[in-house]
Amino acid sequence: MPRVHRRLRVFGRKTVYRGKIVQLEIDRIKEPSGVTADREVVVHGGSAVVLAHLDDGRLLLVRQYRYAARRWLWELVAGGIEPGESVEKGARRELKEETGYRARTLRRLFDFYPSPGFLTERMSLVEARGLTKSRAAPEPDEVLELGSFTRIELKKMVARGKIQDGKTLVGLLWLFNACNFEARSDARRGWRNTIFS
Fold it and tell me: Is this structure's pTM higher than 0.90?
């Protein structure tokens, strides 16, 4: 990989579309390599993705129709962070709206970019525990089916291609790996995984 000594420079920015959820900008840039180019950037305010654990160990997922994908998808609870809202507050709001559950505790695990080549959205994976049922309040245009699944059921769904949503795969694969890591570590050293605390 060649070494690059110069920084990327932005010469201009034009907003070509401003919608309810995203806006599209065209940036004229000079790459560190010296090449001048136009970059299309979809600007999004970020999202919270919730691993919602029931006390019996099952995980909550919602099934909804995703117009862009033209299909019904099982997904972790998730939604956009509103302007001025913290990740924690957004996660609590989305959990309540989509499932009707409230969480006693939330733990932010890590952030990731689902498509950094053109999208500014940063997703925050949050673990919710101590759930109590209340009343769901989905957005008027959301039709959701709530499901609860064991880890074994979820592993089978992932292996069979039944879960196709990217953020859900990131969250579940982290969960499966973290559980295996904790079990191996506990057995060998009595050590708990606190990497994301």
Answer: no
